[in-house]
């Protein structure tokens, strides 16, 4: 339940333009544990519980896509003890989601995982694949977990995918366009990021969704992630609404530039190029689903 002043703020914000896709860099969990004198594992648990709270805020404001940076590829360099704490938490939360599939499907919630999940232990990869496959048909809301992810790895993977397509004779060099690279990203069917929020006061993107956030409003909140609350979220949305007119103008100009680029690209394309691109991307989606199905068949020892 929201208080009268919270409901007032909600009504005011709903009268303006709101982002369709909000991304979060959930920073500050370890500092939070030191300040509060609690264990790191307790702090991470509070951080994951905060995700649920923030998703509730997003539902109130009609935001349909939410992405969170939960585990970077760089995080694999952390101690075995800390990785073990995080992996147990991932397992617990994924198992919880799978146990509540009926509720997720009833609400039309899709769970997507962006990143190279093959780097995780097999039992975790299985859970991540399962939850994606079982909610893939839902369209009302998308919760996008970035796990074993960096933008550089994502872009490299996209380029590698296209290069393999050319080498196999399924694409021509002239078929390579920005749109094709975009469709080969892990985000493939997601809209671009409109608002990117990083907590903890750090002013950097940490290699997160840099392709998707090229026209996003960036908000660096001076609060640790477990302390991120309703007013912090409202402040981020107000900042988005303040900058949105300028953002819309920039996007319009960029859209006009892209149209000109596409005209040039079309002139340089060989006959059948668009058909090859479409066929390649449809097949890529199929192959990615097949990879998830393979991960989901992993046999857990002792099961």
Summarize the structure in words:
Strand 3 (109-114), helix 6 (122-135) and strand 4 (141-149) form a beta-alpha-beta unit. A 6-stranded parallel sheet has the order 3-4-2-1-5-6, sandwiched between helices. The termini are far apart. Helix content is 55%, strand content 12%. The protein is globular, with a radius of gyration of 20 Å. By secondary structure, the chain is an alpha/beta fold. The chain contains 10 helices and 6 strands; from the N terminus they run H-E-H-H-E-H-H-E-H-E-H-H-E-E-H-H.
Summarize the entry for a quick read.
This protein is α/β, with parallel strands linked by helices and 303 residues long. The chain has ten helices and six strands.
Main beta sheet: 6 strands, parallel
Q: Residue-averaged pLDDT, rounded?
A: 93
| Number of beta-strand segments | 6
Strand content: 5-15%
Adjacency order of strands in the biggest sheet:
3-4-2-1-5-6
Please tally the helical runs, counting DSSP H or I stretches of 4 or more residues: 10
Task: Name the helix and strand elements from N-terminus to C-terminus, one letter apiece.
Answer: HEHHEHHEHEHHEEHH
Gyration radius from CA atoms, angstroms: 20 Å
* Helix content estimate: 55-70%
Distance between the termini: 42 Å
Secondary-structure-based class equals alpha/beta
| Unreliable residue stretches | none
Can you tell me the overall shape?
A: globular
